[in-house]
Every structure is written in C-alpha cells, then in structure tokens.
C-alpha cells in the first residue's frame, strides 16, 4: 500500500474496501433490534408501561411472614428479591439481558470490570490449584493473580497468547483447574484460538474463562468451548464513561452455583443506578458501535499506510496476531486497537505527539462515545515477548467524532514526530 501524506486523505473511510467494512459492522447492525427490545416491559390490556424500567433502590426487603422470607432465601440462584446486597429488580433485569447477549444462561452483575475478572478466580480456585493465565490479560487481573491468588496458595503460570496447542499442553498439570484467556489481548490485541483452549481445558478437567469485553455481542464464548465469560460493562455496554460495572456469565448450573455463592459471600453486587445506566446504554450500543467500528477501521487502514507506523494491531487486519481466528469466530469488530511505531522513534517522540492531540482524550478505560489515546509502552507487564515491543506503542479508542477530524489530528501529530526525528538526523 502506498504511503499517504496528511494532505492526501481527509476521510478515512475512502481507504476501506466495502466487503471488509461490511464484515466489521454487520454484527452491530444485526444486534441493534435485539438490544432495543430485550429486557423491557410490554403493555398488557389497558395498562401502559414506561419505555424504560424503573430503578428501584433499597436495602431491606419486607416479607409477609418468616416462612416467606425463608423461602426467598432458598431462591438465591434465581432472580429472587432477598436483600439489597444480593440484587435488585433492575440488576436482575440487566443480568437477564447480559446472559442473552453472551449466549449463556445466568449472569452475575458486579461493581466493576475488575470484580468480574476476579470473581471467577475466587469462585473456582482453591489452595493447591494451578491456573493458566494468558500473558496478555488486563493488568489489574494480573496483579490480582500475583498478589492475591499466590498468597492464597494458588500457583499461576502465564502462557504466550499465541502458543500452540502442543506448547500449551506441556504447561498443563494434574492440578490445573482454570484457564483464563483475554481475546483480543489487553493492549496488544492478540486474538486467541478459543476453541483450542476449550479443548485443552476439557482434557484437563478445567474451566475456561474468557474476558470477552472487546467482543461483546460479536463473539459467543460458550459456542466455542468457554465455561465463563467476563464483561467490563463499563466499556461499550454502559457506553458513556459515567459508571463502573461488570458482569460474569455462565451457561450451566454447575458453573452458576459456585459463582453465585461466591458473589453473595463477597458482597459483589452492583447498585441499581449503575445497572439502570448500563441497561439504558445497551439500547444504543449497536448504533454507536456500527459507527465507531467503521471509523476505527478507516483510521487503522490509514495509520497502516503511514511511514511512522511499524504495525497496526487491529483484529480485522492481517497485521494483527490471530487475525485468522477473528475472521473465523467473530461477527464484527470493535473500535479499540493498537499502534506500534517505527523503532527509530523514541517514547518521548510519542509522548509529545499524544500531548499535542486535540480530539483524542488522554485517559484510562475505553468504550465510551469519545475518542481516547493511551501509551502502552512502559505500562505492560509481560512474562513473554510482546508484539508491541518493536517501537513505542499506544492504544486508540475511536469514538463518535468525525473520522476526518481524527485523521487530521493524528496526521499533525505524526508529521511532528517525523520532523523531530529528521531534526535529530536519524532518518
């Protein structure tokens, strides 16, 4: 592909082949109607209903008798109203919607995405167990494994996210009880072969947990061998960068009961207002992401053509490790991807470029309506070689801004990087 100067391109969509664009956005288009309709009340007879369900707030639940209270307590594995810390009506409604989106049978909503990552580790592991954890997982998940699981007597082994089945089988032990994958990987975007990991876990008698936050609505982990799916609903589901919330979904009672028991015992439930905001955000997720995913693809292709860029880590592009698994298993793509710059640039060059951007906010998280940029160089803990290691790297989240403005913003920054390097005489 020819190199593109800033003056050559104002609309990133001009670079996108129609068939690839359709492949990236069709999942969101297919989901839009379902997202509008799920988890809502319908008018019955002459009784009208609000379009959006109410957020009921409360702690104490009153019962007509001790017998009724006892009966409710035994119904904790269902959407029973027992006590505020065990779930509210709006939480149960959100859980039903998430379970349907993920393709599971039960979901537990928790106070954050990190809580969603750690809850299955607490629910399914005990002292003396061994856990296989992808080296590309979300940093706080890794910290929890290193600082909490190990302290409780759980042994953790990190595996290369693109390891083959043979290589992974060599890491499995008789005490391996859980395999934890994140696909695409946090910051480095490797798409993992989840069906292969499912086979590996099945042979070991272990559970496969998948952090499916990037692939919400686009990838059904249970259809590909997973036992548990993790969602940081803070991201695309809530969609407006104004709440912290997560969910864990399963597809069998055998996986649900220990998960639900652990959530209750650890007090892991979300507040009704956060659940209500997330349920509202889900209504527009399909429309938002159809637009955001398209713009992100255009930006990824444009960046791929720039001389400053060594590699673009977008799962829909062949330059991303595991692209073939994305093409096989996903119905579309999201709006988050990585960029690795040429090794001739320094981290200071990239920092100056990021600081000068006008339409990309600088901040953690992603999934809202606004574009964000975050350096990944220096911020990733890895046991294995990372695909982001060739040069300075950053992560881009593409929001709802006009694609041309985002291109112009990045073009000014990249031109400045090139000028800085030329001034040093390192071209």
UniProtKB/TrEMBL annotation:
UniProt keywords, alphabetically: Lyase, Pyridoxal phosphate
Pfam families linked: Cys_Met_Meta_PP (PF01053)
Modified sites of kind N6-(pyridoxal phosphate)lysine: 235
Matches recorded under SUPFAM superfamilies: PLP-dependent transferases
Family: Belongs to the trans-sulfuration enzymes family.
GO process annotations (BP): L-cysteine catabolic process to pyruvate; transsulfuration
Primary gene name: metC
NCBIfam families found in the cross-reference section: cysta_beta_ly_B
Molecular function GO terms recorded: cysteine-S-conjugate beta-lyase activity; pyridoxal phosphate binding
Organism: Komagataeibacter europaeus
Top-level lineage group: Bacteria
Cofactor(s) named in the record: pyridoxal 5'-phosphate
Protein name as it appears in the record: Cystathionine beta-lyase
Known catalytic reactions: L,L-cystathionine + H2O = L-homocysteine + pyruvate + NH4(+)
């Amino acid at each position: 592909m020819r190199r593109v100067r800033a003056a050559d391109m104002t609309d990133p969509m001009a670079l996108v082949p129609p068939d690839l664009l359709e492949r990236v956005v069709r999942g969101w288009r297919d989901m839009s109607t379902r997202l509008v309709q799920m988890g809502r009340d319908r008018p019955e007879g002459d009784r009208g209903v609000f379009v959006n369900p109410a957020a009921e707030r409360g702690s104490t639940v009153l019962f007509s008798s001790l017998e009724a209270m006892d009966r409710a307590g035994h119904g904790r594995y269902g959407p029973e109203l027992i006590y505020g810390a065990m779930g509210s009506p709006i939480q149960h409604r959100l859980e039903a919607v998430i379970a349907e989106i993920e393709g599971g049978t039960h979901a537990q909503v928790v106070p954050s995405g990190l809580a969603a990552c750690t809850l299955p580790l607490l629910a399914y592991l005990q002292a003396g167990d061994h856990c296989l954890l992808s080296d590309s997982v979300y940093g706080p998940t890794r910290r929890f494994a290193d600082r909490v699981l190990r302290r409780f007597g759980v042994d953790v082994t990190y595996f290369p996210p693109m390891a083959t089945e043979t290589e992974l089988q060599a890491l499995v032990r008789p005490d391996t009880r859980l395999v934890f994958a994140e696909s695409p990987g946090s910051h480095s975007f490797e798409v993992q072969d989840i069906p292969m990991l499912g086979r590996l876990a099945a042979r070991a008698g272990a559970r496969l947990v998948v952090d499916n936050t990037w692939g919400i609505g686009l990838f059904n982990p249970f259809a590909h061998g997973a036992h548990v799916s993790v969602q940081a609903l803070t991201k695309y589901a809530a969609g407006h960068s104004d709440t912290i919330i997560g969910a864990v979904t399963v597809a069998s009672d055998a996986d649900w009961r220990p998960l639900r028991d652990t959530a209750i015992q650890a007090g892991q439930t979300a507040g009704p207002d956060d659940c209500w905001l997330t349920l509202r955000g889900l209504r527009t997720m399909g429309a938002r992401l159809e637009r955001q995913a398209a713009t992100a693809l255009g930006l990824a292709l444009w960046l791929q053509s720039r001389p400053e860029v060594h590699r673009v880590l977008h799962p829909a592009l062949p330059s991303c490790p595991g692209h073939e698994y994305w093409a096989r298993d996903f119905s579309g793509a999201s709006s988050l991807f990585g960029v690795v710059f040429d090794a001739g640039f320094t981290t200071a060059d990239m920092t100056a470029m990021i600081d000068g951007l006008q339409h990309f906010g600088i901040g953690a998280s992603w999934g809202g309506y606004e574009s964000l940029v975050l350096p990944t160089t220096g911020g990733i803990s890895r046991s294995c070689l990372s695909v982001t290691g060739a040069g300075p790297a950053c992560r881009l989240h593409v929001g709802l801004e006009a694609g041309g403005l985002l291109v112009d913003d990045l073009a000014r920054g990249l031109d400045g990087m090139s000028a800085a390097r030329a001034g040093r005489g390192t071209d």
